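ok posting inputs for the nicotinamide-adenine-dinucleotide job
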Amino acid sequence: MRIAMIGSGYVGLVSGACFADFGHSVICVDKDAHKIERLEAGQMPIFEPGLAELVASNVRQGRLAFTTDLKGAVAQADAVFIAVGTPSRRGDGHADLSYVYAAAREVAQAIDGFTVVVTKSTVPVGTGDEVERVMRQVRPDAEFAVVSNPEFLREGAAIRDFKHPDRIVIGTSDERAQAVMEEIYRPLYINRAPIMVTERRTAELIKYAANAFLATKITFINEIAELAEKAGADVQDVARGIGLDNRIGSKFLHAGPGFGGSCFPKDALALIKTGQDFEAPLRIVETVVAVNDQRKRAMARKVQAAAGGNLRGKTVAVLGLTFKPNTDDMRAAPSIPLITALQDMGASVRAYDPEGMEQARLELNDVTYAESAYECARGADVLVIVTEWEQFRALDLAELKAAMAQPVMVDLRNVYPAEVVMRHGFAYTGIGRGRPSRLEGEGGERP
Ligand SMILES: NC(=O)c1ccc[n+]([C@@H]2O[C@H](COP(=O)([O-])OP(=O)(O)OC[C@H]3O[C@@H](n4cnc5c(N)ncnc54)[C@H](O)[C@@H]3O)[C@@H](O)[C@H]2O)c1
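and the output
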């Protein structure tokens, strides 16, 4: 199959490289000429494990190419995937579909012969109808079918997720389009990945419902963590205790600083707006967003409390800035409101992230960046673990303590067992662990 991928961002680039790896002939298009130049030079615009190697090998074998020439790429394609951004629209939280419709218009002008146009971007229910209308307006004569094929990959594990998906959702009632889509995903059929064909609107809603459900699970355990902390229980054990129930499942039950990232916050907001438009309000999702928003500043208050109640003139070392490990994506990362709140409270912030500091510089002001976790900790009054990068899981606690002005750790990801950190002489605060902040016998008080 000949595939044109419109948008070579996180989803477009990963999907394009994986389709090429399946054996299809793929051209990734982007209107950002600098991005395309870099890709042609073998430089990845994002950090994603394994991506550079996958792109290089498929380019070498002649199955993957990059261009800014949308027209040329689309004219030759059997299927055109639209994988452009759908950020929150400024002001009202609706999904901003201007990039999708602009791409649809350009695609319509360029198609030549029957073409399947696939919306891979996350778009509100009913967008496929509008894409079809927009395209028909531009090219009443053209032969095409508009399909929804939402993407479920996770950043940090994107290639694995794309190649071993839990399911593939295809929204179409056009038989010719269905046959093309099945041919494109055939290599995954062999791996027995379930392919689900639904109506287009249903496919669009599946994506939002999935993200909103996962965001709800995270927010639920975060609220349980608050209760556990005050009531003297351990949220880690509560999560395990409920997660072992098959009906609940253990994933997305890790208490932390609140969800962030390029998808959950904007998709939850967009779903709320869609619910309101259809007069089917989604009260649970509305509450999830409100609870999650409040949590970010609450985390700063937790740091302040750990530092003795006042952060003015103190230095906070922040380990991890990206919204999750193994990506350099800073979009809506919890570290951003956390750091801003710490600065509002009078703290100086030093930070270290293995991959995210270049992006973080664009988002944050007045932060001093370090080259390692230990350099970051030097002279700090509190150390805060915000993102659970692998390299933060086995820090040399003695070296860390020696570097710091005060041995105080706030572990917003529960990476460390409290006892281990306290044994090294730290005051330790985790999430949802209703335990003393010092080892008994060291002057700690049980709440
Ligand atoms: N990032 C994820 O983990 C993820 C996962 C699942 C779904 N999604 C969804 O996929 C979509 C894309 O997300 P992303 O993170 O890849 O976005 P991104 O911002 O990384 O990439 C979008 C790219 O599209 C390009 N673009 C925009 N308009 C264009 C046009 N007319 N022609 C050519 N290129 C154009 C931009 O220059 C940019 O490079 C969104 O709807 C998102 O919600 C993202």
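notes: The pocket of nicotinamide-adenine-dinucleotide is lined by residues 6-12, 29-32, 35, 70, 83-86, 99, 102-103, 106, 121-122, 151, 153, 155, 262-263 (CB under 6 Å). The radius of gyration is 24 Å.
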